[in-house]
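Recap from last week: sequence in, structure out.
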Amino acid sequence: MKKIFVLSVLLLSVLLTNAQTTTEEYIEEHVDKAKELMEAHSLPASVILAVAIHESGSGKSKIARYLNNHFGFKGKNSSTEIRSSYKDFPSVDSSYNHFITFLKSRTYFNVLFEKYDKYDFKNWARGIQRGGYARSRTWASQVIALINKYELYQYDNRPDDYVAPEEPKIVARSKKRSAAKIYTVKKGDNLSIIAQRNRTTVSSIKNKNGLRSNALKPGQKLKL
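Predicted structure tokens:
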């Protein structure tokens, strides 16, 4: 019984080790292609690799294994091995090439090539998400997390003196509403006059103050 337990632990350890090294192996296998595309098109190699890792499960997804589709592109395929709504490619490299072609053929992605340099991986990831590449609101954050986890930015060949653009600050919207304006009724006032002077309506004043009639008294306080 003890031997079985030890063997089980060893097997689990091997499986965990393989799972941990899969992504590193994937990076090693495809980094040259990513760097080639970066130099040709000024899109960070880190972004190319991270998107491929994210969309293909480090090359382990079915569409990656059977269709050479590493970027989640939908379309027709001629596969007889699986039924899928995803596009097939003759090789993994052609899937990588199509990623660039796709970005450059869509206006909302093409502008990114003018807007960001090949070292600014964070803004590239966010820009691709804003363009509608994925439905998930956390897609860019996940891609950036992969870049940081596996230090993919090292393949972008950033100059030593490169200064990354400042990240936009998120300004929290104030939940506090502006204090209601209070009007003190004067002699000769009526709801129509008060509404006209304060650019509101009679019905609005009555609703805010719980009034059932138009009768007012001097000195009465009204919320406007």
